[in-house]
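pasting for the record
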Amino acid sequence: QVQLVESGGGLVQAGGSLRLSCVASQHTFSSKIMGWFRQAPGKEREFVARISLSGRDTVYADSVKGRFTISRDNVKNTMYLQMNSLKPEDTAVYSCAVARAGSNIYALNIASYEYWGQGTQVTVSS
């Protein structure tokens, strides 16, 4: 069982920045693709970004491309999401997740993730 704990959320004005962190409980963190998702009130959970084992390959949702940057530190068992130029529509609960072993970073869907964090609230005011 992998436990994931997110932090870094908060209230920020439009145009501002936040950096989210996700700390994993196990050393196997470095052997799994990781991802960030978000869920706004009344909406389904949506993909934000994901990152390969080494951190060399990343995939972003079109809505955040050019504004958000995903990264990871396998020594610290931590993944990050740097969010810049935030918009009110970015308001949501952001959760991190661990993909199943052997997943392909370019062929993942939400069902490919087996462990999830509780989430951290991000609120962007206009």
